[in-house]
Write a structure and sequence with these properties.
This protein is of the alpha+beta class. The protein has helices at about 15-30, 55-60, 65-70, 115-125, 175-180, 205, 245-255, 300-320, 330-365, 385-390, 520-525; strands at about 5-15, 35, 50, 80-85, 90-95, 110, 130, 135-140, 145-150, 160-170, 185-200, 215, 220-225, 230-235, 260-275, 280, 285, 290-295, 440-445, 445, 455-460, 475-480, 495-500, 505-510. Strand 12 and strand 13 form a beta hairpin. Helix 1 runs parallel beside helix 4 (about 115-125) and helix 1 runs parallel beside helix 8. The two termini are about 20 Å apart.
Length: about 525
């Protein structure tokens, strides 16, 4: 028998934003967690640039939204601008909805910030054992656990960790996914890209017209931090080893700019586009870029991974603690894989919109007549038309009960949860089962979203009618829903919504409880509790 150096409930592989968020979520549930990352430190590169409104809702639940916002750009940077060169005037611009200003559909506002600014905040919030500079080199699935072999990058020392489950958040080139032989579907590698981090005084061109991203014909420019710093993104040159990076970036600023870029870091990377064929292999689950690599245009990639682990971690906690059956983990792939495919489609559409705006401008510049001063964007006033995909995700799985009057035996009226929307362009709040519970104010400063956490929540205008149900399995809180919201949620004065810990509606009773056991039966069905109490 192999010598085991440590035993945990969940081993997280990957110390990026997705793995760190999973760590914080699982710790909140009291799950024993260990995280390993093959890099020796947090990423020094800006990488992902956008924490969208849904991710910020998740961080609000973890008590981190204020700290993340304090280190981010102000809402005036929630905009993209198209220019011929950085010091030219805009020929097109669009607001990032949910970033540039508050929206009525959420109690929070997303932010423009760099991944290397976000990760330390997440790291500080997680108290689990973490090992940087430790690479996973082998995985063996056993009957009731997974044995992982780790190698210290400096000393070469091997250690073994036995975990009840493994959560792989180790990136697009996931070692775990490759060792499991899980294939991917999608276009694959789209482009070779270089990120150049540099310092330069560009306030004269940008201070009066701030933006999170400036798209130009010579690459994209991104302000990195409120206190300064820039990044340039562009195609990787053929002879990248001998490229004059300060000269390249300076030329990209525009002819006659008179500014010399002081380059501090250069990173080459590949823009991938795929979705894993499976998100689960026994006790091993994939999340983030390991499960889906999303092109960067529109800022959907990291945020989709954060939503992955928000969906998954309460399910892992239920299985580990015994109030859910192992079959609940099957609903993770059922719910999140379709979202990944739709997100990939949206990101490709985002890229087409970006290239279309640039194509229109090139046509103007090369036409015989005078070019108009503006380009009409093909997406109205919505930032790449994605708010529906961010807030409007609807799940359909065994962890969602049909919208019906449920009986003790869970017979229904034949209705089914709604099919998830095939587009991300519009968001219409809905209290249908499977949807994210709409943001409604319970008090002047407390949202319905603030009522959710390490428990299931029953929202009802009449808590007294449901209090006898509070002995249901798992952790259950009952919250009063103000009467003025009942009609909006499709409830009578004695109806109720059962909200999962991830904020999605698991069941809805339009009227009073049909029996004393209906809530117990509903939770049993949602969690698979009757299958087994072991993980």
């Amino acid at each position: 028998m192999a010598v085991v150096d440590a035993e945990v409930d969940v081993l997280i592989v990957g110390g990026g934003p997705v793995g760190l968020t999973a760590c914080a979520l699982l710790e909140r549930w009291g799950v024993r967690v260990s995280l390993v990352e093959k890099r020796g430190e947090l990423s020094p590169f800006p990488r992902s640039r956008l924490v969208n409104v849904r991710s910020m809702e998740i961080y609000r639940g973890l008590g981190l939204a204020g700290e993340i916002t304090s280190g981010a750009f102000g809402p005036e940077f929630g905009r993209i601008r198209f220019r011929d060169t950085l010091h030219d005037s805009d020929f097109a611009t669009a607001a990032m909805v949910g970033i540039n200003a508050p929206i009525p559909e959420s109690p929070v506002t997303g932010v423009v910030t760099s991944q290397d600014r976000l990760e330390p905040t997440l790291l500080a919030a997680a108290g689990a054992r973490m090992r940087f500079g430790a690479e996973l080199v082998d995985l063996t699935e056993e009957a009731d656990s997974v044995l992982a072999v780790l190698v210290d990058q400096r000393s070469g020392e091997e250690t073994r960790v036995r975990a009840r489950h493994v959560l792989a958040a180790d990136g697009a080139h996931s070692t775990v996914r490759q060792r499991l032989g899980i294939g991917t579907a999608g276009p694959g590698a789209l482009a070779a890209v270089t990120t150049v981090v540099f310092d330069a005084d560009l306030d004269g061109w940008c201070a009066d017209q701030p933006a999170g991203v400036y798209f130009t014909a010579h690459g994209s420019f991104l302000p990195l931090y409120p206190e300064g710093g820039w990044a340039w993104l562009g195609p990787t040159p053929e002879d990248s080893e001998h490229t004059d990076w300060p000269g390249l970036v300076s030329r990209a600023l525009g002819p006659g700019a008179g500014v010399r870029a002081e380059v501090t870091r250069v990173q080459h990377w590949v823009m991938n586009a795929f979705v894993a064929e499976r998100f689960r292999h026994g006790r091993i689950l994939l999340a983030g870029d390991a499960a889906h690599a999303i092109p960067i245009v529109g800022g959907l990639g990291m945020n989709t991974g954060i939503a992955d682990v928000h969906n998954l971690c309460w399910k892992l906690a239920g299985v580990v603690h015994g109030w859910a059956g192992p079959g609940l983990l099957d609903t993770y792939e059922t719910e999140r894989q379709p979202v990944a495919h739709r997100t990939l489609q949206q990101a490709v559409a985002n890229s087409k919109l970006m290239f279309e705006a640039q194509r229109l401008r090139h046509e103007q510049l090369h036409s015989g007549g005078a070019a108009p001063t503006r380009v009409e964007l093909p997406w109205s006033d919505r930032y790449f038309a994605q708010l529906g995909l961010v807030l409007g995700v609807a799940y359909r799985s065994d962890a969602v009960l049909s919208d019906a009057v449920l009986t003790d035996t869970l017979l229904t009226d034949g209705s089914t949860p709604p099919e998830p929307s095939e587009t991300g362009t519009d968001y219409v709040p809905s209290a249908e089962p499977g949807h994210r519970m709409p943001h409604l104010w319970l008090t002047p400063d407390r949202s319905t979203l603030d009522a959710f956490g390490e428990w299931f929540t029953l929202l009802t205008p009449d808590p007294a009618a449901w209090e006898q149900q509070a002995t249901a399995p798992g952790v259950l809180h009952i919250e009063r829903l103000p009467d003025e919201h009942a009609d909006l949620c499709g409830l009578s004065p004695r109806g109720a919504l059962l909200i999962r810990p991830d904020g999605h509606i698991g069941a809805r009773w339009r009227d009073c409880p049909p029996s004393d056991n209906i809530l117990r039966h509903a939770l049993t069905a949602l969690t698979g509790h009757d299958e087994t109490r072991s993980g």
